[in-house]
Q: What sequence folds into this?
């Protein structure tokens, strides 16, 4: 009988929710690589090997300037790491990737070798959302990978609900939007309407390379190259797709619920 | 294959010269295609190839029983053509797509309407089929749904709770993948292939790689083919497990729902173990697989696989044990085998109607030429059958992985890809977890891609969802929809 | 009777007469005819309410005497009226409605300007009020029958006022036939009473039943039950009601549903409690059973309707059922010698009579205002009217809450009293019959729930969401007199609900007259703030208390709003549509869709049929058209009345052979008849 079985099973297994953030974060897969570090100082003069291999034109090196890697455009294919003769681009294995401002994702020049992690919302918004954040997810051209890894946060292993964060059915009930996908032209109206339906104050979170800058589809006439073109974005979570841990880190960081998170007064 | 057919025959994952594809005047082409469909063969893909100001139609037919694929093309024509849909419903969306992409009007098409309609108006606008009667009300759902899912619009015609007609309007996800491929492959192409449908990364990437390898006249190293097969089955395991959990969740059977939600993640993590990405990004490249699995890695994979399989076994046992689940699953969203064959269903949805239809078995390519998976069939055609087929396939895929992990071929995993042959056509079919993924690549004289056609299984199967909903209670829609669990972006491209 | 109420009453009747004359006189000048006709009717109604209410309140009715209105020139007939408690009570109802409806009509009749003869309409309306008032006051069987017949004929003419439509003509004829079937029974009943008493005066019928042999008494009861039952619209004699009420002009519909069906209740009360003495048990059982069935069937059929006025008409059947439950229980208590309980049940039934008159008239007036604005009765073509007709929507909502028997409005009070009497009845008899009380109570509960569901539908589909047709889109609020008429009745709903103990005093002379009890003291506790069920098992309830409690809670949300919401910015955004380009009225739930689950649950009764027509050119997968229709079978219509009509028509065709057209044949008939009479005399 399944009733007996399920109860027994649950008792036997106990709580399966991870200890993070109180305990250590689960390890990323060893081949994942995590965040990138770009040291433009190591670049050889005139070298643009990485620029040529980047599929999303995330790396630029204008003449006589330092190389710049835009992690917002990056889909973490690691081709540039293989291509770089000087080892200027490295993987840090760090799952923390979320930032508050778009240009915090641009790496390269001295002092900006790594991304500048997100600071928490201001005190007023933190008071409003800190212990209860309801989000409406809008997939606007997303391939269902970012969506799936957002969804997984609701499973027993991650249990997003314990932070008071929940995905709600209607934007009317939401405090903000979580957007995935490059925002196809066909979803433009729907996204605008959904944003308009969220009561103020509201926040917008862009998850994945597509939602930040268009991802692999950047430049296609059928897409808007990310959510920023239509609505103001408060949090950028890069990745293709971002690991669930990265998304969770971003959400908690935004709410100022991580120990190491800097807070803006 | 001992039956005479005017089409050029080829096996899955091979190429032939464009000139070798038989060419007929438009009327003959349609007659031949119609005749083969009338014999019960299946339309894998039908698309237009612009030539000058005119248009050619190309049909790829799957002779499942004969284990071969058949290709034919029409002479260039301008203007309209008589619709095949009038007699063969499975051509329905293909002909709408041809009209939308090239402007050639399929005459007498019973429901001629844009498929994706980009720019401006958005796809859900336009006339929907309406049931006459003062008592009818419409239920309009989407594009933004209640859960975390992709956008699409569903328009129900209801009499009270009963659904009389469902029309599905998609296109919200259109990102212009096919259009961008002309003149390719480009630097971003393989990454776009991996995101045609993000949950089907391995299947689409494998189809793409196979098509390019066929055009280049090369084959991926054996160990790469083996790795791709491993990854493909892991992808199937993850998604089927997720679907079982979601189906359980839709009937409020929480033990299985919550267990499967977690186990699905475990399967995804196995893929991540191989390549670092939970969805298999970067695992498949034209020419092979960039990352090999060391023995320790594979041993770990094997070990964690056993745990996950044992857990899913238990979670599924609860599901089948609960009478309340059975009563909700049985006789809900029913499709006849005849309907399934006529609208050209593929994948688990087709197998759940009793159709023996599986690319791994009918059109083996890559590693599946050496190791086949039995076809899992259930005859009833309802939600229960679709859930059951998934469970059978979870078991078969688990068995397959156990066997294959023990008998790994040795060797390299990546070989450089030679240049693509000019003026050639390649067809690659892969049985993704939703069903047949069909990629057709055509090169021009310069050896660059001239036309690239992707057919996701969802393109065949959305019609099935609409049919399954007829005369159902609207409250059963989530259940029916989930039992197909089709892709929106794979359809919209 | 004191001079004051009697004079006022006669003044009221005089106003109606003047109204008839004035309206006819000035029929060429529509505005004048409207003003005079309905103005005088309003004056008459107002005087009538004052007269009857003051007579009941001061107890003047107990001392009232019968007096002749004017000397009769016809033998056997005396035009005498007697404003006793029962008559005054119903007189009060008709006057109250006459007052409110006449004011409403001042606005409503404008819709007929240039189309119809408003003078005739006004005169008819006055005549109907006059005849109905006289029905309640007549103290002589023949005078009663004359008033009854005038009432029926006037009602028939007014139902057929918009006779251009075939539906209206058919409904009129059905009403005419059924009404006369009833009148026939009444005539027979009165003749049997006359045979026993030797007089047509009502005073001579008093407690006559106790002296009649049991068989004849039962026959008399059955004749009156059928005769008055037809008028009351009790199942299965109800079929004319949902046909006739909707097609009449809305003020007439309101009068018919509010008052004229109540003449049946008046008659049954008069006969059952005044004329026929102590009843045998089966009378009460029969009335209670019929009441229960009427209540449940009425509301079930109402649920299936998407014609707003037909829906209301079916609710009249339901409410008549509830009233009959009270009367039936009272008869049973009377039989078993429980005068207090009998009085309680009688009060419950008659209080519901008053309440139903008020809220049903209110709802019909609302429906009339909607009809006035949209020119349709089909709810599927309405929607969104709350934004366009704010006041009408508010009034209709109050009526809907009242008829759904939700506290603190009047419907709740009288249904609560009905529950009290039914539940206390369980202890009065030991036989299996006692089960009828809880069973009826349960059915009453079911009725209440279904009525609430029905009015969620009626209000929601009619007034909420977006308009579903062009007329609804361009609907406008009703003119002031129409709103005033509705406002008066709305206020009445609130007052009758909030202060039931005040009104209970009016019942004292009534129960004193019929059962010899006065209950207002017993039913009132805490200085009139709390209503009590009386007796040891009775419950207590205070609608005023509930309201005050809710009002006390009001500062909480208000305070919260002041504290938090007032400071935040208000932004008006469109309705959430899932990001679609726009919502259309087609996406609203339809009335039929709303009630479909209930149709499925009660399919044994409704025998629903659905027709789906699918047409396609080539492929069965792609329909070119798909048509859906569903029907509900009206079992009484198809299983009883249609075969009956067929039989009658067949018999008529047979007997038509007698009408040969030759004088010789007719002479033979006369000869044979004479011969037969002679033989009979021998």
A:
């Amino acid at each position: 009988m399944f009733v007996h079985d399920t109860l027994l099973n649950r008792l036997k297994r106990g709580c399966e929710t991870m200890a993070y953030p109180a305990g250590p974060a689960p390890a990323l897969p060893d081949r994942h690589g995590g965040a990138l570090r770009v040291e433009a100082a190591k670049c050889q003069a005139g070298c643009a090997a990485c620029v040529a291999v980047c599929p999303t034109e995330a790396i630029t090196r204008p003449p006589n300037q330092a190389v710049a890697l835009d992690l917002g455009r990056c889909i973490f294919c690691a081709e540039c790491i293989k291509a770089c003769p000087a080892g200027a681009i490295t993987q840090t294995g760090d799952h923390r990737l979320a930032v508050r401002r778009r240009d915090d994702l641009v790496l390269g020049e001295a002092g900006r070798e790594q991304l500048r992690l997100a600071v928490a919302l201001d005190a007023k918004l933190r008071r409003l959302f800190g212990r209860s954040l309801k989000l409406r997810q809008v997939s606007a051209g997303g391939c269902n990978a970012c969506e799936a890894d957002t969804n997984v946060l609701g499973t027993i292993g991650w249990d997003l609900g314990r932070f008071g964060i929940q995905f709600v059915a209607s934007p009317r009930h939401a405090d903000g939007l979580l957007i995935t996908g490059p925002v196809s032209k066909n979803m433009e109206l729907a996204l605008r309407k959904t944003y308009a339906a969220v009561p103020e104050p509201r926040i917008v979170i862009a998850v994945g390379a597509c939602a930040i800058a268009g991802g692999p589809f950047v430049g296609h006439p059928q897409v808007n190259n990310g959510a920023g073109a239509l609505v103001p974005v408060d949090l950028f979570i890069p990745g293709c797709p971002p690991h669930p841990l990265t998304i969770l880190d971003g959400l908690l960081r935004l709410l100022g619920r991580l120990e190491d998170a800097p807070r803006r007064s | 294959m001992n039956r005479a057919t005017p089409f050029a025959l080829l096996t899955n994952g091979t190429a032939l010269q464009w000139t070798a594809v038989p060419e007929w005047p438009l009327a003959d082409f349609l007659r031949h295609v119609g005749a083969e469909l009338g014999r019960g063969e299946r339309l894998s893909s039908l698309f237009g190839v612009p030539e000058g100001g005119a248009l050619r139609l190309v049909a790829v037919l799957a002779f499942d029983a004969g284990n071969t694929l058949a290709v034919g093309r029409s002479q260039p024509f301008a203007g309209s053509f008589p619709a095949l849909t009038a007699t063969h419903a499975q051509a329905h969306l293909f002909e709408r797509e041809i009209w939308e992409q090239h402007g050639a009007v399929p005459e007498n098409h019973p429901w001629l309407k844009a498929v994706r309609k980009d720019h401006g108006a958005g796809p859900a606008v336009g006339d929907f089929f309406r049931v006459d009667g003062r008592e009818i009300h419409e239920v309009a759902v989407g594009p933004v749904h209640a859960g975390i899912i992709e956008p699409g619009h569903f328009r129900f015609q209801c009499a009270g709770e009963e659904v009389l007609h469902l029309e599905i309007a998609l296109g919200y996800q259109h990102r212009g993948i096919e259009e961008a491929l002309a003149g390719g492959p480009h630097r971003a192409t393989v990454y776009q292939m991996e995101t045609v449908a993000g949950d089907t990364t391995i299947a689409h990437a494998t189809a793409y790689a196979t098509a390019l390898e066929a055009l280049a006249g090369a084959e991926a190293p054996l160990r790469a083919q083996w790795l791709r097969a491993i990854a493909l089955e892991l992808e199937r395991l993850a998604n089927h497990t997720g679907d079982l959990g979601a189906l359980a969740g839709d009937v409020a059977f929480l033990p299985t729902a919550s267990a499967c939600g977690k186990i699905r993640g475990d399967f995804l993590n196995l893929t991540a173990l191989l390549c670092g990405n939970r969805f298999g990004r970067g695992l498949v490249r034209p020419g092979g697989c960039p990352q090999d699995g060391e023995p320790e890695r594979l041993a770990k994979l094997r070990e964690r696989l056993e745990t996950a399989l044992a857990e899913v076994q238990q979670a599924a046992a609860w599901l089948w044990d609960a009478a309340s689940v059975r009563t909700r699953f049985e006789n809900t969203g029913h499709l006849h085998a005849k309907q399934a064959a006529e609208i050209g269903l593929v994948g688990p949805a087709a197998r759940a109607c009793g159709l023996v239809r599986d690319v791994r078995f009918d059109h083996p390519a890559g590693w599946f030429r050496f190791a086949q998976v039995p076809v899992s069939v259930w005859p009833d055609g309802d939600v229960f059958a679709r859930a059951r087929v998934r469970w059978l396939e979870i078991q078969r895929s688990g068995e397959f992985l156990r066997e294959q992990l023990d008998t790994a071929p040795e060797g390299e995993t990546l070989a450089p890809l030679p240049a693509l042959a000019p003026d050639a056509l390649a067809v690659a079919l892969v049985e993704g977890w939703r069903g047949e993924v069909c990629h057709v690549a055509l090169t021009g004289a310069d050896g660059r891609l001239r036309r690239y056609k992707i057919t996701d299984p969802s393109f065949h199967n959305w019609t099935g969802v609409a049919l399954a909903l007829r005369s159902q209670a609207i409250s059963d829609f989530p259940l029916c929809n989930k039992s197909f669990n089709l892709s929106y972006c794979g359809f919209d491209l | 009777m004191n001079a004051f109420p009697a004079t006022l009453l006669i003044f009221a009747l005089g106003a109606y007469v003047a109204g008839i004359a004035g309206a006819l006189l000035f029929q060429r000048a529509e505005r004048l005819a409207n003003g005079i006709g309905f103005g005088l009717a309003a004056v008459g109604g107002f005087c009538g309410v004052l007269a009857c209410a003051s007579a009941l309140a001061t107890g003047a009715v107990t001392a009232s005497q019968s007096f002749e209105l004017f000397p009769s020139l016809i033998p056997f007939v005396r035009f005498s009226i007697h404003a006793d408690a029962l008559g005054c009570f119903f007189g009060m109802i008709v006057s109250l409605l006459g007052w409110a409806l006449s004011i409403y009509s001042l606005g409503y009749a404008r819709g007929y300007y240039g189309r119809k003869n408003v003078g005739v309409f006004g005169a008819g309306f006055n005549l109907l009020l006059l005849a109905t008032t006289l029905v309640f006051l007549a103290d002589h069987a023949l005078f009663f029958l004359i008033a009854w017949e005038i009432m029926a004929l006037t009602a028939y003419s007014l139902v057929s006022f918009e006779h251009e439509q075939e539906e209206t003509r058919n409904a009129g004829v059905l009403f005419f036939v059924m009404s006369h079937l009833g009148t026939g029974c009444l005539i027979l009943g009165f003749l049997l009473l006359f045979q026993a008493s030797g007089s047509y005066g009502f005073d001579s019928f008093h407690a006559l039943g106790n002296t009649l042999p049991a068989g004849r008494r039962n026959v008399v009861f059955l004749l009156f039950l059928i005769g008055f039952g037809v008028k009351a619209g009790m199942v299965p004699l109800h079929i004319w009601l949902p046909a006739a009420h909707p097609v009449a002009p809305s003020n007439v519909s309101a009068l018919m549903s509010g008052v004229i069906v109540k003449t049946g209740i008046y008659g049954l009360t008069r006969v059952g409690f005044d004329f026929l003495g102590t009843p045998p048990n089966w009378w009460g059982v029969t009335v209670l059973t019929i009441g229960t069935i009427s209540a449940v069937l009425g509301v079930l059929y109402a649920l299936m309707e998407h014609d707003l006025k037909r829906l209301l008409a079916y609710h009249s059947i339901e409410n008549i059922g509830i009233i009959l439950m009270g009367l039936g229980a009272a008869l049973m208590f009377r039989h078993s010698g429980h005068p207090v309980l009998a009085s309680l049940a009688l009060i419950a039934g008659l209080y519901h009579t008053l309440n139903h008159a008020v809220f049903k008239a209110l709802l019909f007036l609302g429906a009339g205002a909607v009809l006035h604005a949209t020119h349709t009765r089909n709810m599927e073509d309405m929607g969104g009217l709350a934004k366009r007709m704010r006041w009408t929507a508010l009034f209709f909502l109050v009526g809907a809450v009242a008829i759904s028997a939700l506290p603190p409005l009047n419907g709740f009070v009288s249904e609560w009293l009905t529950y009290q009497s039914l539940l206390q009845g369980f202890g009065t008899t030991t036989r299996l019959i006692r089960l009828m009380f809880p069973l009826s109570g349960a059915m009453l509960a079911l009725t209440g729930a279904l009525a609430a569901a029905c009015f969620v539908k009626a209000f929601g589909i009619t007034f909420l969401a977006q308009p579903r047709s062009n007329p609804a889109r361009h609907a406008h609020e009703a003119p002031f007199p129409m709103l005033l008429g509705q406002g008066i009745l709305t206020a009445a709903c609130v007052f009758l609900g909030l202060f039931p103990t005040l009104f209970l005093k009016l019942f004292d002379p009534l129960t004193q007259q019929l059962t010899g009890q006065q209950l207002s003291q017993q039913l009132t506790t805490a200085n009139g703030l709390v209503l009590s069920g009386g007796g040891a098992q009775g419950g207590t309830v205070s609608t005023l208390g509930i309201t005050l409690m809710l009002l006390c809670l009001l500062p909480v949300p208000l305070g919260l709003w002041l504290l938090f919401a007032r400071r935040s910015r208000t932004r008006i955004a469109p309705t959430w549509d899932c990001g679609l380009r726009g919502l259309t009225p087609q996406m609203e739930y339809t009335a039929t869709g709303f009630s479909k689950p209930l149709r499925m649950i009660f399919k044994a009764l409704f025998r629903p049929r659905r027709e789906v027509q699918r047409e396609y050119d080539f492929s069965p997968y792609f329909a070119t058209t798909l048509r859906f229709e569903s029907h509900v079978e009206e079992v009484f219509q198809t299983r009883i009345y249609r075969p009956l009509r067929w039989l009658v028509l067949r018999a008529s065709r047979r007997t038509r052979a007698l009408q040969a057209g030759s004088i010789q044949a007719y002479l033979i008939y006369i000869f044979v008849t004479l011969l037969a009479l002679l033989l009979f005399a021998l």
The longest strand of chain B covers residues 42-51. Residues 187-440 of chain B form a domain with the Cytochrome-c3 Hydrogenase; chain B fold (CATH 1.10.645.10). Chain B has two domains: 8-107, 187-440. The CA atoms of residues 275 and 283 of chain B lie 6 Å apart.
